[in-house]
Design goal:
mainly alpha; single chain; 86 residues; 77% helix
């Protein structure tokens, strides 16, 4: 997979997993209120797994961006050109 595609997938996961987290918490609460404690417990465990996956995704984004920064070619300014003002 190319680095750009990897970053797109990781960004999608970083945005989508908190949404999934919110839905799982809501459905687990709904099931617990309806008296289905077993299903609510399972959804809470899935929610924990989604949270761990979200944290791993954020770490992977940082690593992928670092790799991208290292692989980019340097902008070398020749001696007769003035460096850009920041």
């Amino acid at each position: 997979m190319h680095l750009r595609t990897t970053l797109k997938v990781l960004l999608t996961l970083a945005i989508g997993l908190p949404v999934l987290d919110a839905v799982l918490v809501w459905v687990a609460g709904l099931l617990a209120a309806m008296g289905d404690a077993a299903a609510a417990s399972i959804l809470r465990q899935i929610n924990v797994a989604a949270g761990v996956l979200w944290i791993l995704t954020l770490v992977a984004i940082v690593i992928a961006l670092a790799v991208k920064a290292v692989l980019e070619p340097l902008d070398i300014v020749s001696e007769d050109e003035e460096p850009p003002l920041l």
